[in-house]
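Hmm, how's this folded?
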Amino acid sequence: MNFLAHLYLSGDNTSLKVGNFIADTVKGKAYQHFPLDIQKGILLHRFIDDFTDNHPIVEETKIRLRPKFRKYSPVVADVFYDHFLAKNWQEYHHLTLKKYVAETYKELDSQKHHFTEQSKHIFRYMKQFDWLSGYASFIGIGRALTGMSRRASFKNNMHLAVIDLKKDYSLYEKEFQLFFEDLVAVVNERI
């Protein structure tokens, strides 16, 4: 869901990126079967998710989204936050988003032998439809949310989330900026 943030927070370390990318498809202690640097990426991903899930600013975002998106409000919040990271990319990274994304796809592609089968499937679509760059536009996040809405187990309104984003755009962007500043600080400390 928030692939761009996870990859960005891995810095320039390819193994951390790989672990961070595949982490949602690696359950429990199965991470111990991967090379040590990839294990660190998987554990970093779990740390980022835990920090995010328990951050008071993110909770405000989820509370606002919950009436319409219920249990999927954290998913919608993740996509909104990746949108703001992509949209304001130049504030966070010296490379353009386009160049960063191209290099990241190339890096991950070279490490596919470490991916789980599910990660390979996700990566194929991510690269083919350029999800990472797409997060910068309403059309791109609309596609992402619609795709997730179709794949979700329960009835949801995720395909309508862009309407909510547009309605309270400045508020969501401010929440992202405040939260992301905290997240970057704790991740840099942890790495």
User: Anything to note?
Assistant: The chain has one domain: 56-190. Residues 16 and 40 are 6 Å apart (CA to CA). The chain has a mean pLDDT of 93.
